[in-house]
Design goal:
This protein is an alpha/beta fold and 333 residues long. It is 44% helix and 13% strand.
């Protein structure tokens, strides 16, 4: 007798229906131990988005792909940004003795960005042991503070980008909403946390598992993640503006502390002052000087409302100088 021939879906449809069958295969058979480090006021939406990917993957096989653990800086409950307390499995002192394959530092909008010595020690030990390290929201600050990001790219929430760049100027900070490398991964907010975990899963377990999880979660992933602007709450150059004007606006946004002179801007874009003034009048209905001053005042307001940013003292001094000379340097309109 001939053995019955097994029938499969075509590759495209098989991926769409794989989650209905508990036969998803991957190279790594033993469960990976994943530790979420919950910092006080961590982002609950970012945490649950990342967690959902791992829990969903565990539904696709009798032997789970992941064993999930939660840790606080100390043992006990940790308050999230939504005011909901999560009971952590243990404190960081226990994490140092655990066998962990992946650590994810969960930051949030109100997380205090100061180095935590015990956390830094745990991260350095994990890095030495070859553990994969990741972060949510502004958790990459703590990875950088621990000294485990040398040679790696990362990203951080736009609100904390200035602080990160000033604190760790030697590190490469990406504008992308997520960065996933073989040994490091990071994302900027709750919206990119799910895609970050899917990409990290794809790198470790392959495309079939990641696609199956996507189908269950009904994910629509953009082909190319849109970059965030370094100061996303500041005006972002309109893509419809001429390239020269967009370049000037970028220069101004990136030089709020030590403003560029019109001569320096003119030299950078190889346009005369009169040509630059015409660009601003035609497309923004203002003068370059007035726009630059208003941009810096907006930056000052942001710093006042986000005291963790390191730019405030210098911006106060520079903007005060600008206010004093505004009447002399700006034509009336």
């Amino acid at each position: 007798m001939t053995s019955p021939r097994r029938r499969d879906f075509t590759p495209a449809m098989k991926r769409r229906n794989q989650h209905l069958l508990k036969d998803v295969t991957c190279a790594q058979s033993a469960p990976l131990n994943v530790a979420f480090i919950l910092l006080e006021h961590f982002s609950m939406p970012a945490f649950t988005s990342a967690l959902d990917v791992l829990v969903t993957a565990n539904l696709l096989r009798d032997i789970p792909f992941y064993r999930i653990h939660t840790f606080g800086v100390t043992a006990g409950s940790v308050r999230s940004d939504l005011g909901i307390d999560i009971m952590a499995s243990a404190g960081l002192e226990s994490l140092g003795q655990a066998q962990i394959d992946m650590i994810i530092v969960c930051g949030g909008y109100r997380v205090q960005l100061d180095e935590i010595p015990l956390l830094s020690e745990v991260l350095r030990r994990a890095d030495h042991q070859g553990c994969r390290l990741g972060s949510l929201w502004n958790g990459s600050y703590f990875l950088a503070a621990a000294g485990v990001m040398a040679g790696h790219r990362c990203t951080i929430h736009p609100e904390n980008a200035a602080l990160f760049s000033e604190s760790f100027p030697q590190l490469e900070l990406s504008r992308a909403p997520l960065v996933v490398e073989a040994a490091r991964f990071s994302c900027t907010n709750a919206g990119s946390a799910l895609n970050m975990m899917l990409e990290a899963m794809r790198q470790r377990h392959g495309d079939d598992l990641a696609r199956s999880v996507e189908e269950i979660l009904a994910c629509e992933r953009p082909a190319t993640p849109s970059p965030w602007h370094p100061d996303q709450t500041l005006p972002v150059p309109d893509s419809q503006h001429p390239e020269a004007l967009r370049t000037i606006l970028e220069l101004m946004s990136n030089n709020l502390e030590e403003p560029l002179s019109m001569s320096e801007i003119s030299h950078c874009v190889t346009l005369s002052r009169r040509q630059i003034e015409r660009l601003f009048t035609r497309h923004l209905d203002t003068t370059p000087s007035r726009y630059y001053l208003e941009l810096r005042l907006t930056g000052l307001w942001l710093c006042q409302h986000h005291p963790l940013q390191p730019l405030l003292p210098r911006l106060l001094r520079h903007v005060a100088d600008a206010r004093a000379s505004a009447a002399l340097t700006m034509p009336c309109r």
